[in-house]
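Give me structure tokens for this 598-residue protein.
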Amino acid sequence: MNKNIFYIILSLIILLTGFTACKSSPKGRSEIPEYAGKLNANRIDKYLEDERPFAAYQMLLNEEKTNPEDLEYNPADEKNKIFDYIKNQYRKAEADHDYYVSSSIISSLEKLGKSEILDGKNSDKLLLDFIESEYEKKNYFTSLKYFTSYILNNKADDNLLVKYADLAVAANNNYYLKIILNEFRNRKIKIEQKYIDAVQKSDPPSEMIKGTVTIWVNKGIKVESGVGRPDRVIGSGFFIDPRGYLITNYHVIESEVNPEYEGYSRLYIRLSDSVGTRVPAKVIGWDPIFDIALLKTEIDPEYIYSFSESMNFQIGDKIFAIGSPGGLENTLTSGIISSRSRKFIQIGDAIQVDVPINPGNSGGPLLNENGELIGVVFAGIEQFEGINFAIPSHWIADIVPELYRGGEISHSWIGSVIHEKNGILENIYSVPGEPADVAGIKKGDIIKSINGYNIASILEAQKIFMSIRKDTVVEIGYVRDGNNLKALLPLGGRTDKSFDRAIKRDSMKNLILPLYGMEVELTGSYLFKESYNIKKIYEGSIADETGLSVNDPLVIKGWKYDLKKRYAILRIDVKKRKAGFMESNIQLITSIDSNNLL
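Here you go.
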């Protein structure tokens, strides 16, 4: 080959590589998925080391079914190993009153028809033991939350009802008190005046302000243009526990726990009535997806807020926010609810409000007219005055018990990208190696139910998964080609960057559908370009909003993503039918993180 031609070709390769920096392979998977390759005894041991016995069991069953002649182990021996691990895991959870783990094991074995492994144990007594254990630890919110679930499904002792009604009064939690009092009425138990007074009580803002704090994160000195200035983050927070536990936003304290942050970081709080006095605090648990963190400080708060699981708020309702905008403590602002459900976060939804929000408000409580906590302020759009957001309290109430356990919250998922329309949830993509993919749930399957509960929205499905621990076996009901099917699968662990697994494991061509909402088919290739035809456009997707149509021919000119800045860009030359097949150069830009992951 002529040397000049060789260098021209090499230069072109380098240029193309430069555009696709931080890329996945355009031809195939660039990372071997976790589940890929033959399952052997060593890999089963690795699953057990990761505390995922049911994932190991699923893979073992898959191998027995698909590759029985190639097994590199004795299936019976490995099953016994897995079941012995599960028994030991259960015994430890039972001894530790760890209801999260023990109930997950019981539920999973029931789904698999293997309850005899634990001699048919059920979770009712375990739940009550857990509730009482949390009470003894003074984790009152957790004990109240689970007790109100317990009485809805079991015949709790009358003395227990009185005990937890008194706890709800002491914890200032009217939401759970009302549930318990309703059970009083069902049993015709006399409701004492102290309970009636507690339910009817409404605390004034002057009292509630005592339970809020200013969060300070000192990040040292930041040098800009040769001049140093204090680098600090200011936020708000509020107490939820008489032992000094409080809630704020994760993004306020991120430098304290993010392993990628390498600078100086010191966390303090300042009480509403102690201007200038900084009190050290530490991060106990955090959830980047919901932007929530639980802190602990060694002081006795004057006021305690209580989360509820109520969704009883409407557009136009008057609301109040308490916080420290710009570091100005004890600031009370008012407004209304502008919208109930904005898909502004990866799981769940957000309340849109017009209450004035400024830097420093993040992490403060959002209250209704009755002084009830309905959300946590977390974001505003600086360019647009009056467009701000809060996380509804019913989502946060689900994760507070996990926050007390410490560390980063790991949510559950099956690894499906869902297109929702008119109550129909269509799986348009299964992340390679994640539970849906391993269980054989394919593109076009309609997800109908989880553990027998019919679902008609992504939010409903996400709410169910919020209460289920990873590696718990669930039953997914789905429809394929008109046939009702079921799949048993152990849930995978989800993080705030879970879709990165798809980008690292799959080809650019396959990722076009989940990221941009269009399905393409290859029609030809020449030099370093490939031509495609649009096979399907999903309503409401980026491709749809860009004006692309089915049968539009296109050439992919470049593909780039940035896992730190969280975006992906697809550059195409397309001949739109709607524009008389005139050729256009278009860049499709999307966030890697979306709300349609299940």
